[in-house]
Batch of 4 targets.
Target 1
Amino acid sequence: MKKELLAPAGDLEAGYAALYYGADAVYLGLQHFSARATAANFTPEALNEFTAYAHSLGRKVFVAVNTLVQEDELDGLLKTLDICSKYKVDAIIIQDLGVAEIVRKLYPELEMHASTQMAVHNKEGALALKKFGFSRVVLARELTLPEIEEIAAIPDLETEAFIHGALCYSYSGICLFSSLESGKSANRGKCLYPCRAVFGGEDGEKHYFSMKDMALQKDVLKMPVTSLKIEGRKKTALYVAAVTDYYRRILDGKGEDSKREENIKQIFSRPWTRFHFNGKNKEVIDRDFVGHRGLWAGRTEQADKRRIVVRPRYKIARHDGIQIDVPGEEKPFGFSVQELRVNGKRVFECNPGNTAEIFLPPKAPSLRRGMDVYLASSSEVKGAYPYSRPKPGEFKCRQNISVSVEVTAGEICASGGGERVCLNGVFEPAKDVSKMEETVKKVFDKTGDTDFNLEKLTFENPDGVFVPVSVLNELRRGLYGKIRPEEKKGVLQRNPAVVKSGEPRWCIKTDRPENLAEIDLAEAAEIVFLLAPDTSLDVVRKFPKNKLRLALPTVCRHPQRFRPLVDKLLEEGYRKWEIGNYWGCGFLPETGIDLSFDAPLYMFNGEAVRAAASLGAGRVTLPVEGTENHLKEICSAAVLPVTMIVYQDVPLFTSADCIRTNPCSKCQRGEKWLTLTRNGVRYEALSRDCQIMLFDRRPLCLAVEAGNIPADYYRVDFCYRRYPAGEAKRIWDSVRRFEDVSGINKGNIDRPALL
């Protein structure tokens, strides 16, 4: 099976470059609801033109509608989906379950792809989304080749995997770091990338979470997936051209090309990694520097305030960009070469192997011998990837119409698209009646810049008259000017929300029974216990069974490790369960259980709640990154009972990328807490079982605001951290009175809007 090469396009030029250099499909975003909101993105007119051009080449276009959508944005979402339907895009890439529900109901012609933001990281999650109606899942980047092979083997489900580009430290879709720090949510396309920053930690001031770039290179040939995806909707057309060209050659059997690899690294690249493709890998983080370096060109042989001397491995020319690693600086020192000398003479360029004097700009940092020098921008490479583009307006997605033309000796009429136009005239007999129909066809074929394509023409000329071309042109313009293109306009039929019942009920959640030792569990309407694969049945049995809900973790790379425990619990009659990822839907029984969706299964709008109900949920949980008004809107629109988390140590992210300093072979793999600081804020990272979770030292507490939010259940969480039993009781007692405790943060609750 031929693998699809899927390239990014942040704008129209990048899209044309991708097609020119061999992309089988291109993915892009529109002005709204795109997870790369800060990219240029496409206007409806650009989408129309680009999609029509791509289809003329036999290529595909996918539109990323892959952010979480708030209730008051659903009408705008419908307009976006109308555009996608109108211009016949090949698929929609989706994160929000509510968006998927709307597409299923109102836009069945649009194919659905599950975004990597849905965090599909095992077979069970893929199967659940397939059943819901997704034809393709975009896999989590963290997966190894055997894990990818297992998911790709699912019949009648397409799979897509990233092969090149930037990496997030967190599993995509379950990172709240930017949101809870700044109100700018990664799930809404506004991430500020706080993970790239310097943190103080046990190894000093480092970029503990700043990832290298993925580059699978020839390993893409081992990929069993349907589609091979290049990351980069915020990159230039030059970058897209170079990377697409590089992988097109590999897929076409021409092998890796070292010169093309060098071009990519010069245009934009962090250090490259194969990530976890070949198994667990700790060499995936660049702790010392962040951002683009370029192509390593050599080391300084001499340096002073005015110049550096280097024997470059590559040609360097005036106006090329140079970067130099400066110890102690977060980013390399970069500048454009303005003066270049070889053997004391000013030159335009220096060839590899010659000794170059490169003069520094004013206020350059102190440099010394032995520093790494990178070629970060090259005029020669910029000219190495020309590409063609169609003439503006040459391609449009047009609506097929049928036209009938009837002519008599005194009148000519044209009908089509529900409209009719007639012109009076005196028409003489035609000298050659057979040519008249051919002429009419040619005239009405000229649809110009209209939205129409003439599919069929019927011509009736019983009197055999001749009609001048000028009259036919006037008739065509009149008809095409009256016809309005068919517009699909989605309309939501909102069902009534669930009726709220009586007094609020309080729930408590933990993964450590000892945290609850001093709490009277009779005060809780429900106890949620987070399972681990090695959880003892005796521990579970100590909780009151009638109140107990058992929770599965959000990330689970090996669901089979849970199978014996879960089967035994189901056998013993435990019917209340909670899940935080779609894998739970594919793992637990479809019937006979009481299922609750936890916060990482984002319920951002009423349609998402309806979709949760169709997946078997009987209760959902509000997102912890919501504002007060947003949470109220969800409660008002929800057709299922709603839980609000009032107190929690929120996982800012969950990662497969270890920051312990010890090698894997010497790791105990037990629980270890690491303290990190940034801008005066203290964070704690939990390392356990080859997984990292980051927490703000200050827990989220929304007790005061919870009294204004009409949830059906309120929940207090004591998970991950060890809570002294007395402290847990104090917190439990306080928040149930809708009173905050000290040392907390408020997240986005009192922000005017979540960006």
Target 2
Amino acid sequence: MKAKVKKVLAVIIVLLVAFGWYATCLGVGPVESIKDTMKFGLDINGGVYVVLEADQEEVAKLSDEDLKQVMEQTRAVLNNRVNAMGISEATVSIEGTDRLRVEMPGVDNAEEAIQQIGQTAQLSFLLADGTVVLTGEDVKDAGIDTDTENGGYKINLEFTSSGADKFTEGTRKASSGNVQVNEVFQQVGVDKTAIVIMLDNNIVTAPTCKQTIAQASCEITSAGGGYSKEDASNTAALIKGGALPISLHDITSSVQTATIGEDALNKSVVAGLIGLGLVFLLMILVYNILGLFADIALMLYVLIVLWVMVLMGTVLTLPGIAGIILSIGMAVDANVIIFSRIKEEIAKGKTVRVAVDQGFKNALTTVLDAQITTLIAAVVLYEIGSTTVRGFALTLMIGIVVSIFTAVVITQLFVGIIAESKRFGKNKFFGVSEDGVPKKLIKREFSFLKNRKIFYAISTCIIVAGLVFSLVRGFNYGIDFTGGTMMQIDMGKAVSSEEVKDSLKEYDLKDLSVVLSGKNNEQVIIKTVNALDSEARQDVIRTLGDKFGITEKDVLASEEFGPTVGKELKTNAVKAVLIAAICMLLYIIFRFKSWKYGVASVAGLVHDVLIVLSFYAIFHVTINNPFIAGILTVVGYSINDTIVVFDRIRENRKLHHRKQSNEEIINHSINQTIDRSVMTSLTTLVGMLALFFMVSTSIREFVLPLIVGVLVGTYSSVFLCSPMFYEMSKNDGKSKYVRENKGK
């Protein structure tokens, strides 16, 4: 590409970045701002989600194919039900093989909504004596209309052809007045001429029938002024929902108000911008003009990630924001690797222009290997993780792919222009002194292998301490692992935790904790290992209302996890790490053509996971669902760092195996890449720390294992993985006689 074309293209990119950020933040013409365009999750917009599990006895009777069909039919029925309730953008999706996740954004009365969708038994039309007339399968449609005769609203029903025949016969019997009301219906005042519509064991409505209705439709009216619109809509929704092919019960549910979500979003955006600004500043301070152009590429990177998410219809969650911030660190890493290689080529005596071309070529393999191994972890996380964790994994995957493009294409364009410039194409602008010595953050060379036994001992002590704490005291599992309930309530005034506990004594809540939060401690966070369903939570709220004057509107958030969910989370965590480790091992063996690199890398992963677990055991930090995402991301990040070091060892062994010993090559390789390891860790930590200190607890739960993992991953790749590779390869190249007689 000609120099003039490159310059024009660079100017266009700068203008596009400036315009893109302006349009993203404020909107331009028909293009709305990213805040108005992006789809946000329930943890930001507020709303309700509930996970329903099929009855396991019924599941056991079905083949895999039949279960798949039944769950799809059930999903369709529930989808009709929530749509009929008029909830905008409600979604029903299948999770795993026997679960359904229902999300209802912007729901005001959360508990009522959960009860509505959670009614799972078959719909039945009965005579007053309990005889079944027809079932929900015979109902074709249900809706509402204004009731001009009685006022208010009425419910319109439409039946299938077979349902119409059954309904005709049922109304004939009911209208005759000869039906004997059974004891159950007598207790609730059901008339002998009624057609009782029941869902589960509850009466939806029991309209009376004055005459035989010999047609495929009918109206349900209320003589006392008609139904209210809400009552008519809810009743029609339950009827239209029809008969569920299989019984369901809720195992997890969450309620989040928009107030908390919007506050968390605003704080996340501010924290993200501060983190991004600090990364930009750090890049300029360390890499000068190269850092400036890397920052332009990073700004384009963030724009592309955000708008790709919009075009894909991806739902942005709070964990997803953490994923974007983390992926920025990954994007910086690619630039740091490239800049380091360019400096090394200049130090070898090459011209700046040649060094830039060669540096990009040498760095490309490292960048791809490092990012692909991280991508493996993200893919596994997406496949195995829960819906919330998937949002984190998806943004991370998008970020990794885009970072390769911006680093390899955009950064290369700008750096190439500088290299061809008479004014800037000089050593000092590429981090190299005029005498050819590259500037380094860490100028001294260390003998890492010499002290490897000390590093082994340090890691062993930490892991043993973690094991002791985990056996003696146990891990501090959150309610999503143990099963339980969390409620965050705005009390409207400062209260003591003991007052709240005293008011809840009648419920015998196990491991009850009440934590004060919010401005002036006017909010309380109540946690218990009792898995309280929606009805039980309402009872708790009513009790607190009698004592403190709160209502359901004061409930800012609530979550409930069944005990089976926690067991699956633990299983999935182990499964995810094992699958990711195996996939990475195979990839590394394939790319490096040696099992030793792969085994040393995976040994480092095991070490990092054990160290993070030890940290959680020693400091009794809560382990919950986000922890899985954190652990797997730690695995991906750690392997990323190790790959960079191993790639340099592999290269140096090919070039210098005859001139230097294996120990000298490995030590030199680590020292060559130490600046990159430190710089990447710094840029990643800067963004993570901003999120940790400025945003909500839910984000901190994602960020904490990442912060610990970044530090541990950097430590292991430098001080452990390379020494372990040395232990396995120190006899490489020696004769068979020397290997067999070593130590004799």
Target 3
Amino acid sequence: MYSTIITGGLHGLDCYLARVEVDCSRGLPGFEMVGLLGSEVKEARERIRVALRNAEIELPPMRITVNISPASLHKAGTFYDLPVAAGILAAQGLILSEDVERVMIAGELGLNGEVRPVRGILPMVLEARRQGLERCIIPEENVEEARMVDGIRLQGIRELRELADAIREKEGRAPNRKRKFSDQAVQGPDFGEIRGQEGAKRAAAAAAAGFHHMLMIGPPGAGKTMIARCLPSILPPMSEEERLEAASIYSVAGLPAVSFLRGGGRPFVAPHHTVTGHALTGGGQVPKPGAVSLAHRGVLFLDELAEFKRATLDLLRQPLEEKQVRIIRSSGTYCYPADFMLVAAMNPCPCGYYPDRNRCRCTPGQVARYLSGISGPILDRMDLCAEVERVEFAALMKQEGGTEMNSAGLRTAVMEARERQECRFRQDPLLRGSIRYNSQMGQRELNRFCALGMPEQQFLELMFDRLELTARSCHRLLRVARTLADLDGEERIGKVHLSEAACLRLTAGKYTGALQA
């Protein structure tokens, strides 16, 4: 007999619906699986055979042939176990074919018949809803993650022996209703816990408001890492579309995605400086998302920037510009989104105290070698550079004052600046929501939304000549100035905003001179 079961397949972050075709016929007993399968899919034969026996489901001796289509796409993963078992039961007449016509089934089987969770369940359920399916039968442990998808019924099972009953039920959990996620600030470190460093806090607020990349330079213990870890507390909450997008990446990577269901904040990813290129940007024999994709719509924090290998850092140049990572393998091309805010922190020299010659004992050659690990193109992509200086004792012992520089106050200012940006970009029908932050503006948007008066234009021309700015540096300076004006509630960019943007833009030149080229 012949049967067909619908399941999901993953190709990078994209999901497609696959068909598991099972034919049970007389002949020499055997179990064959075809369809351009990876090793873990081929191994499913033994898992399914033993799981069916331990679930007290006896199969008569016959030839079983399984084809997973489309056969032109490489199949990998363990989520084909449960649909293949369901196809065998349907081919034996234990399950009616009409009961599984509009049902997607996915899950891994243990030898004892246990149904175990799988990665990538969220994009599979999203694709099933898009294709008009009615139900999804998945592992019970994946149900909470799948609940992020509205408008489709879910049935979770824990054991293989529950499969037939679940298919016959035709009910499952009711389709989810639209949910309102909490807009409350993320719990965690608060900017109010940081004493002093008002300039760095202002730079962090500007970075959060315009989604600008930021670099912090200063001695050890000044608070650079603390400032970076406070950033999620002032970032605006994600929309439901962004939440599903970020959760899908975590689901494909096999990481918990339920935090996005519970109204958590934006992603914050901080890889160690020994991270490999594949771990940072994604890759492997079966490509998986890297840190830049896990930080999508959130913050990628690189602490001790100068300690990273130069070749590893240079891998960020393309994702920073294109907002995506493209991985080419013999099995196909995989594309992962990578629209993140890069935040980096570094010491100015090996000991960390340059240019304070009273404490720094590094030679000029040691300082040059230390900083040479960061290429100029990477530094040039940093819109903001904040100098985090040593905190004085009086500031350290000062009690917390007003709310302007704690996370609640900064978050309010950031939210208001974001609203001004969204209102401004909505006025242009050609944009159609393609631009949401000031950092995304191109030449056309700069001409329209960053128009300067004659005094401001003359001031910018003076800076352009004296600081020897390039065209890219000038455009980045204008984007930052536009964000600073939004933070101050100003419709037009003033000289004060241009001056502040120049200071934040060119601070790194005090140490490296790289941004002045």
Target 4
Amino acid sequence: MPKYLIYSICLSALCLLWGCGSRGSVDAVLDAAGDNRAEIEQVIARYEDTDTAEAARWLVGAMLGRNGRVGAGMDSLEAIYAQLPNGATWQLDSAQLARGRNFANLPLEKISDAAAVSGDYLISNLRDAYRLRDSRKWNAQLSDEQFCELLLPYRIGDEPLSDWRRAYRRWLAPIEDSIALLDNAVDAARIVSQFIGSCPYNDQLSTPHRSAIALLEHPVGYCREDCDRTVYAMRAAGIPVAVDMMLVSPENGGGHQWNVVYDNEAGIMRMFDNLRYPPTRDRIHNDGRRKGKVYRFVSEPQTRRLDIRKSAPHAPVGLTNPWLRDVTAEYFGHNEAEIKVDAPSGEVYLGLFTPSGYKPIDIARVSGGKAMFKNIEPELIYFPIEWRSGGFRPCGMPFLLSTDGYIRIFEADTSVVSSARLTRKYPLRFMNKERLASVVGLHVQSSSSAAGSWRDIHVIERPATGNYHRILLEQPIGDRYIRLFKEGAPGANISELVASDDSLALLTRPLEIAGTEETRLRYRTLADGNIMTGTLLAAGAEDLVFRVGGAEPVTNLFVVPGNDDNFVVPGQDYELFYYTAEGWKSLGRKVSQGFDVEFEVPDNAVLLLRNHTKGVEEQVFVMGGGRQLFSTDLQNTGCRQ
């Protein structure tokens, strides 16, 4: 999953500098400016006694604690990105990737905005933002606070500063006429989003925070950089946007960011993604990801988040970052869950189980042995956790808050036991569902010759339900050659083809790719025995042909769609655990005899399936309706006792 970088800040210094309200912030910036003080003062003086005075003071106050980061490593990275080819395969080669990872880890120098930013730069930014506020119809009712946060900021995080507004407007010139007469910001954002999404983007490297101009010239990075590029483009076009994020994914434990645009007609923010989910007024928040808690990057610091650092020294930087505002209620409404905890006082955290341990996403104070968590995503499995023995540990039982406010506490009842047939140890996320579905319409064909003629022996009509899509053969295949062919778009995401002498894909036959050296190189991963490698078979491609080894007819064929290899497979060693007040307890260990594994499980238990043979990804789940319910499956289930 994509990584995110929380902006580098000196929290202790920030706490000392912070004043109450705009006046204190401006004074603190001026004090920190040193020799640059005159530059900052000219901005305030220029707009004194005008309607723009408050916005000018806000812009100066928002400089407090802000830094840019520059250095030789960043310059070297940009030189590598400049080597990206402009053709269809817009990728870095292995040598470039290795150098890029090395440069990305080189130290960078912090440069204080207060001490370095020119007055002319701030004035130009202020003038441009006001012009766009006045000229775009959708900004007519924009409040001063919304203007300051969604249009006015001169930077996003700690990226090197650049004159980005004019540069991005030149880039967007081909679509200016399409958005100029629109009345709704979401409609305008959709046009800009489609324009951004049509341009190439490379996500091979996690990078330091890059400048706006660098992103425009060479769009490289993870979700943060893609969001940054979108913010620059949207604000340059006068569209009020921001970046929202989850610190920890309830599905895979990673972080993620996305963009939101202000809908001036509905008065709400709407999330979007440039390719997968373009801006629309038909829905509010639905990108297929569970979130837990949602935070928004803001320019005006949130002093309350600094207070957390004082009382909770082990709080992760995300929970103390003053440039993050909790906006979970915008997504899921206001709610609260009061949970009993084994902590007499102090702070406890709202925790998620992840493959790398328990991670906090919110914080609450303990009162009377209980903690009140507010505004959380319903129908997720949470753990109250505390810092203990060098890490975060549960300090209460896992729980779930339903959409109607009911709180389910998961305390396993060992007096009620039922049989559970398990097929996965990790949530089936939306991208893996898409890969499994991509093989629908795939023709599996055979021939006695690599040149054909070909006959269908199977056509996949529904998405695979596991790692292996077994092809039921009415009779063994005597032909030596198998071809995979996809007729309609999109192409099929395939990991392997398996020929086997048994129904469990254990007694496999050797396979080799037929055809030219170029063809064998292109499809080599489809016969390497590694389920984690694969390729996209383009619609209409007729050159994917396998030669089956061995003298006997083929009795079993399996198409393996691209997937995460977290399904249960035959012959591997699994152990099931359930959570108790004393921690995790084993329910047994067994080697799977097929594509599922069966255990006896107690009622109302949070469960965890571990594969001792291979793999590290695992996630908690509960049983409901006779099936496993991971975080991705719990929405709208009414998961009660």
